[in-house]
Specification:
- By secondary structure, the protein is α/β, with parallel strands linked by helices.
- The chain has one domain: 3-Layer(aba) Sandwich (Rossmann fold), CATH 3.40.50.
- It contains six helices and five strands; from the N terminus they run βααβααβααββ.
- Strands 3-2-1-4-5 form a five-stranded parallel sheet.
- α5 packs across α6.
- The longest helix is centred in the C-terminal third of the chain and has 13 residues.
- The chain is globular and about 35 Å long.
Length: about 120
């Protein structure tokens, strides 16, 4: 199963947060088919800039350097995101949903709004 990580999942993984089950942590630690969107790095950088996330100051770089495969953002992804039904208003999540749909990935998330879309999800 090829996975795309929602932002909160990456943050929990980096913090070794017990919110993530051990089997999920193990999969993220060792599966080469786990993807990260640059939108996640962008979202964290913006949230730090506006004060919604604090330390560490290099969190976006830590996420970028986490070892997950980068899933490039394409025009197809942005068009698909723009055409999604307005269930979820968060543009970062909409882009992740579109990327998962277009690349046939399973989106790893706890976001209840995301699972309302026609996208494969793995709830954590």
């Amino acid at each position: 199963m090829n996975l795309l990580l929602d932002t909160h999942v990456v943050l929990w993984w980096l913090a070794d947060d017990p919110t993530l089950a051990d089997d999920i942590k193990e999969k993220l630690d060792h599966d080469p088919n786990v993807y990260l969107s640059p939108a996640t790095v962008w979202e964290v950088a913006i949230k730090q800039a506006i004060g919604k996330l604090q330390e560490p100051a290099d969190l976006p770089e830590r996420i970028r350097d986490s070892g997950f495969r980068e899933l490039h953002i394409t025009s197809e992804h942005t068009i698909t995101a723009g055409r999604l039904p307005p269930i979820h208003r968060d543009p970062f999540d909409r882009l992740l949903i579109a990327q998962a749909q277009c690349a046939d990935l399973t989106l790893v998330t706890r976001d209840a709004a995301i699972i309302k879309y026609d996208v494969a999800t793995l709830a954590v």
